[in-house]
Write a structure and sequence with these properties.
four-stranded parallel β-sheet; alpha/beta; 18% strand; single chain
Length: 138
């Protein structure tokens, strides 16, 4: 919020759903300062970053301790803080919805993703990068 204060350029914040839940109270600053901020929440229903770690394979406790699903959506938070709210269900919608005209100083794009698909896509990308680096070193 502070970074976006008083500048005429759009400021962007990319954040996960759990981190956003921890930081929501910071939005109160929007009542007291000018801002120009688009918040992009990657909602994978919990601590998706932990899906990359070895404990993700311990099914008995993973969801309760690390996955921590909330089943929350943030449209009510956007309304509470007088933000534009844009719901993005599929990546194919993102470009069109991202360029939607902003009508308020704050905008919230909530992008819904699947934790397992995210891990698969990241690992596939890492494999491509590693293969490219190996080929480059040869």
């Amino acid at each position: 919020m502070g970074f976006s204060q008083g500048n005429n350029r759009e400021t962007y914040l990319l954040i996960g759903d759990l981190a956003f839940l921890h930081d929501i109270n910071g939005l109160i600053a929007s009542r007291y300062q000018e801002c120009n901020l688009t918040i992009i929440v990657m909602n994978n229903d919990g601590g998706g970053i932990f899906s990359y770690l070895p404990q993700s394979t311990v099914e008995a406790h993973y969801e309760d301790l690390f996955g921590t699903p909330t089943a929350l959506e943030f449209n009510d938070i956007a309304q509470m803080y007088d933000m534009d709210y844009i719901h993005v269900e599929d990546i194919s919608e993102l470009s069109e919805k991202f360029t939607t005209v902003k009508t308020r100083p704050l905008r919230l794009l909530e992008i819904f993703t699947d934790r397992e698909e995210n891990v698969y896509a990241h690992r596939a990308l890492w494999n491509r990068i590693n293969a490219g680096l190996k080929a480059w070193q040869s």
